[in-house]
Amino acid sequence: MSEQSKDVCDPSSAAEASDSEVNSSPGVPGGLSPPASQAAILAGPETPPLGPTDAPLASPPPQAPSEEGDPKALQQASEEGRAHQAPSVAQPGPAPPAPAQLVQKAHELMWYVLVKDQKRMIIWFPDMVKDVIGSYKKWCRSILRRTSLILARVFGLHLRLTSLHTMEFSLVKALEPEELDRVALSNRMPMTGLLLMILSLIYVKGRGARESAVWNVLRILGLRPWKKHSTFGDVRKLITEEFVQQNYLKYQRVPHAEPPEYEFFWGSRASREITKMQIMEFLARVFKKDPQAWPSRYREALEEARALREADPSAHCPRNSVSE
Amino acid sequence: MTSNHTPAPSHTQGGPRRAGVMTDVHRRFLQLLMTHGVLEEWDVRRLQKHCYRVHDRTAAVEELEDFINNINSVLESLYIEIKKGATEDDGRPVYALVNLATTSVSKMASDFAENELDLFRKALELIIDSETGFASSTNILNLVDQLKGKKMRKKEAEQVLQKFVQNKWLIEKEGEFTLHSRAILEMEQYIRETYPDAVKICNICHSLLIQGQSCETCGIRMHLPCVAKYFQSNSEPRCPHCNDYWPHEIPEVFDPEKEREAATSRATKRSLRSRQH
């Protein structure tokens, strides 16, 4: 990373630090400040870090020089919350805090990250610094490292820097197989059902779904754009704003349409988290038909499933409910 | 010391407290519990079975209470725990992963703007001060001018209140609001610390009480499910404190078996056009 980050906490190196810690052998990893008694309990007799899933962990290498204005943005963002300008001369910094305080910060950060993820909000590095790390910014690398360790050992989750450019982290499941959880409690998540309905419509159409088409489908469920729903609230706001914000859907103006019309597409997050086979299973469940009732879509789903298996054989789930 | 590869012990941990062993069964359980926020007990049992099925088919499913205690012993050093509570109206057991170190409404803080958080605080105060545990929409909305942060109109405040309902912080009944069991679970400590004088406590379980019944003579209060359990099969219910006749209707004790039967018969009758999806 650039030299400007010397005095300032740098999310990419912090993320690399956290990744390498998870990869190391069990026991107290080198480089950590002497753990307080709480951390010692975790560092003690525990199951070893998760095996094969650690392998594809590499955080993206810093690409600062090639990206416009990025080093500046990084420095600016990490200066948020600081009272003074970051001097280019290294100052004699404040005395390092007690290990117990760093541990406490790590716990606070752990909870913060878990809650953000629970609410499907973006975990943004400058927010982490502003809301949690605060004046301990100089030690944020070790705090991040400890937090990642705890998340991996206790929750089986990797705190990964998914985008250096936007400084976004995300919590990635480190346990395999990953897909089954949806099946376990799917009927308790109405939001997912609503989203899956729209995604399925888009998928079956094979192109963007016009807003009018989406409302035709939602009408069957008793949802109207102007009516407040007991579970979903303002449905229109939910699908055109919240789902879009969370990157599950894209909501775009139809080019050249007069009067203006909008259509929905799959968002990047939906493409990452939801497989075509899951859509086929959903359709099969809702319409009580065999997934092969949509032959071309089913073929597509099969191909995607095969491509995913070839890309990462360890992720293949033998208990997939749709037999192939 | 136990080897690193043994699954969670199936016996209760007696003797000196030691941190339990986390396996992938526990980790997945924690992940999913966190994802769902708050879960009813039968969902938690399903979740537990699911985690065993995925990671350790051969092991016997540990008794839920021991399973959770085992996990909690590991979480203790992180100042979080899986907390068990009950819905105040019908006594359904619920579980949530809560942060014990929270000293404010900070869990909600990342979700809501300053004025929205303040609206919640105002609603919370009205609820705690009320006799019934409910605050009317009108009374809450009348406080909109006193909110910190950006000015909020009443129309907007109505929508914010609905957001609280959707996020399971508040429950709405006929235009009145009370705390969701999730909010009670997560904020009990904060509430007791912040409103030590106004807060009501159940005479039986000694936990925070928002809704309940009270003795008209001596004023002690009890949760509805606590009343149900305490006076179960008692034809002449009397106040445990002053022995006066208990003047309220005694509710039924929550029966998970009956509940499940009712749910399955509802599900088979329900047509495909389910509102859940």
From TrEMBL, chain A:
Pfam families assigned: MAGE
Keyword line: DNA-binding, Growth regulation, Nucleus, Transcription, Transcription regulation
Keyword presence, Transmembrane helix: no
Region entry Disordered, spans: 1-100
Coiled coil (residue ranges): none
InterPro entries: MAGE, MAGE_WH1, MAGE_WH2, MHD_dom
MAGE domain ranges (all copies): 102-301
Biased composition (Low complexity): 12-37
GO biological process, one term: negative regulation of transcription by RNA polymerase II
Transmembrane segments: none
PANTHER family: MELANOMA-ASSOCIATED ANTIGEN MAGE ANTIGEN (PTHR11736), NECDIN (PTHR11736:SF10)
Subunit details: Binds to the transactivation domains of E2F1 and p53. Binds also SV40 large T antigen and adenovirus E1A. Interacts with nucleobindin 1 and 2.
Annotated protein name in UniProt: Necdin
Organism encoding this protein: Mustela putorius furo
Organism taxonomic ancestry: Eukaryota, Metazoa, Chordata, Craniata, Vertebrata
Automatic annotation (TrEMBL), chain B:
One GO molecular-function entry: ubiquitin protein ligase activity
Domain Phorbol-ester/DAG-type: 187-239
CDD domains, alphabetized: RING-CH-C4HC3_NSE1 (cd16493)
EC number: 2.3.2.27
GO annotation, biological process: double-strand break repair via homologous recombination
Keyword line: Chromosome, DNA damage, DNA recombination, DNA repair, Metal-binding, Nucleus, Telomere, Transferase, Ubl conjugation, Ubl conjugation pathway, Zinc, Zinc-finger
PROSITE patterns in the record: ZF_DAG_PE_2, ZF_RING_2
Keyword tRNA-binding: no
Predominant place of localization: nucleus
Catalyses which reaction(s): S-ubiquitinyl-[E2 ubiquitin-conjugating enzyme]-L-cysteine + [acceptor protein]-L-lysine = [E2 ubiquitin-conjugating enzyme]-L-cysteine + N(6)-ubiquitinyl-[acceptor protein]-L-lysine
Comp. bias regions, Basic residues: 267-277
Biased composition (Polar residues): 1-13
InterPro entries (UniProt xref): Nse1, Nse1_RING_C4HC3-type, PKC_DAG/PE, WH-like_DNA-bd_sf, Znf_RING, Znf_RING/FYVE/PHD
RING-type domain mapped to chain residues: 202-243
Superkingdom, taxonomy of origin: Eukaryota
Subunit structure, interactors included: Component of the Smc5-Smc6 complex.
Family recorded in the similarity comment: Belongs to the NSE1 family.
Record function comment: RING-type zinc finger-containing E3 ubiquitin ligase that assembles with melanoma antigen protein (MAGE) to catalyze the direct transfer of ubiquitin from E2 ubiquitin-conjugating enzyme to a specific substrate. Involved in maintenance of genome integrity, DNA damage response and DNA repair.
Protein name, UniProt field: Non-structural maintenance of chromosomes element 1 homolog
